[in-house]
Structure prediction request, 455 residues.
Amino acid sequence: MRRIAIVGSGQAGTLAAVGLMNAGYEVTLYSDRTADAIMNEGPPTGTAFLFGDTIAAERRLGVETFEDRALPADAIHLNFSPKVGQELVEVSSPIDQGKGYAVDVRLMSSTRMAQLESGGANVVIESVTPERLDEIASENDLTLVATGKGTLASMFERDATRSVYDGPKRYLAMAIVKNVATDGTGFPNRVPGHTPVGFNFYGDIGEFFWVPFYHKTQGKCWNLVIEAKEASPLDTYRKVKSADEMVEKIRAIIKQYAAWDWETLKDIEPVDDDPHCWLRGGVAPTVRRPVAHTESKRAVWSLGDTSFAFDPIGGQGGGCGARQAAYYVDAIVDRGDGPLDETFMEETYEGFYEQHGGRAYNFNNVLLEPLDAIGKLVLISAFGDKGVASRFFEGFNRPDDLYPMIKDKAAARQWVAEASGGSWRAANLKGLAKIIKGQLRLKTKGRHFTYDDSV
Ligand SMILES: Cc1cc2nc3c(=O)[nH]c(=O)nc-3n(C[C@H](O)[C@H](O)[C@H](O)COP(=O)(O)OP(=O)(O)OC[C@H]3O[C@@H](n4cnc5c(N)ncnc54)[C@H](O)[C@@H]3O)c2cc1C
Prediction:
C-alpha cells in the first residue's frame, strides 16, 4: 500500500488526509497540536465560509460536513460607497449553487483527526522541522505540506510572477459573536426572508462583512470581519488584546460606518467560553511554488494556505485549499501505480492553478483594488438587473465564470448581456437610474441604503 504523509492539521491537510485514507492509502497526519489543543488553546485560522461547490467536494471525500447543524447563507448583500457618506449602490441576490456556510475550522480539524484515528490512519503529534520533514519524505511515497502560512511555508519559494503583492493590503479584525438572530430575521433590511453574507465596501477606508457561522460550542452565531486600509479610520484595533476589547472596537465601527446594521448588531458580545474567538493581523496574498526540496533533495508538495495565501475579502482561501485537496486526491488516485514524483506534483499543481487556484486568487485580488471600468460596469448593471446580481454573486462559488470578463471589456459586456437576458446597455442604464434615485434620496432623506427594494 502506498504511504502518504501530510504535515499540518488545518482544514486543507485533514481533508486531504481523510480523502486519501478513504481511497485506500496508508496515511500519516502530522500535527503540532493535539485535537484538544486545536479546539481549546487558540483561535480559528479564519472565518472559512465555504461556498456550495467546496462543500460538495468535502462531501465527496467523505468528511463530516456539518450541513445538518450549520447556519447556511442563502443570499449575498453588498453595499458599496466610493467614500464615507457617499452611499451609492446596494446589490443583493439569493444564491443557489453557491449557497454555503462557515464551520469553525477548529471543529473541522478535531473531528477529522478523530475520523482518521478511527479509520486506521496514523495521527502523530509533532511539530515538524525541516530536518524531520526530510526523514518523513524519505519514509513516504508522497509528502504534502499543509502547515498554513507560517513555519514550513517559507521552504516553498514565493512565485514572483504570480504573486501580485509583497505585503498585506488590509489590516484585519475578526470576532465570533452572539446576540444576533440566527433564524433569518437578523438583517430584515438587507435580504428579507434570507440569511445573507452582508458585505460593506467603502472605497476610501476598507470593507467589513458579516458571515453566518457555526461555532465549536456556541453553535449558530455570527462572524464579523473588518478589513481596514492602512491608517484609515477603521484601522483602530492593532493593539487589541482580548475578545471583549475587539467586539467593542467592532461595535464602534458598525455604529459609525454601518448604521443600517446597528439595530441588528448593537447587542453583540463574544460567544461564550471561548477567549480565542477573535483574530487580528494581515495576510500578504501570495502564490508559492508547489514543490520544495528537503536537505537530501526530496521533493515535498504544498497544499492550502502554504500554496496560496488569500486576503479574506472574497472568502476564497479556505475554499481554494479544500478544492486543491480534492483535486490532488483525485490526481493521486488517477496516477495508479505511476510515480508520485516532482513532475507529477508540478503538472498536477498547474492543472489546479488553471482550473481554480489562479482564478480564485486573481478574482480575490481584484476586490482589493479600486473599481476599474469593468468593475463599474458589473456593479452598476447588477444594481439594475437581478440576473446580473445573481450571476455575479454565484461567481464567488465559481470564479471561473468570471473569466475572461474580469479582464476583458468586450467579454464583460457580453457577460452582462447574457446574465440580464437583454442588452448590457439596458442593464447598465437601469443601474444608473437607480443610482440617481438613490443620490436624490441621500440628499433629501440623508440615507440611501434603506433596502426597501432589495431582492
Ligand atoms: C479573518 C479571516 C477570514 C477568512 N475568511 C474566509 C472565508 O470566509 N472563506 C474562506 O474560504 N477562507 C477564509 N479565510 C481563509 C481560511 O481561513 C484559510 O485559508 C484556511 O483556514 C487555511 O487552512 P489551512 O489548512 O491551509 O491552514 P491552517 O488552518 O493554518 O492549518 C495549518 C495547520 O498546520 C499545523 N502546523 C503548523 N506548523 C506545523 C508543523 N511544523 N508541524 C505540524 N503541524 C503544523 C497548525 O497547527 C495548523 O493546524 C479567512 C482568513 C482570515 C484570516
Observations:
- The chain is about 35% helix and 20% strand.
- The chain has three domains: 3-46+53-64+106-165+286-365, 75-101+169-281, 373-445.
- The longest helix spans residues 342-366.
